[in-house]
TrEMBL record:
Any one Gene Ontology molecular-function term assigned to this protein's record: nucleotide binding
Protein name: RNA polymerase Rpb4/RPC9 core domain-containing protein
Organism: Euplotes crassus
Keyword S-adenosyl-L-methionine: no
Keywords: Nucleus
Biological process per Gene Ontology, one example term: DNA-templated transcription initiation
Amino acid sequence: MDTPTEEHPTGQNTMYLSIAEMSLCLEMKEKDGILDKNNELIEKVLNYTKQFNNSYSEEHTQAIRTLLSREGIREPEATLLWNLSPSTVEEAQSLIPGLKDYHDETIIKVLKEINGVSTT
């Protein structure tokens, strides 16, 4: 799975992962036997992703990331939009002010994909 990165103002690369993407990464590491479940931080992240992941399949997760990239939504806003999964454009824009830079139709298209409604 491609991992989205963006140059941070400090000059460092920053990764933005949705909860679904983090869940998939942890599942892969767990299957490979390289996940240290005795690590308190790892245990907390596992619990968090289990609690808040919307059970996206790997294919759906990749489709969402591809759509977000294709629509040109900046990584921070894209990841917040995915993780928060607002119901409406108005809710999305009030929670994530940077989305006001995008057309409503773009946000609607992304929200439909995130919420499992076919956009084709």
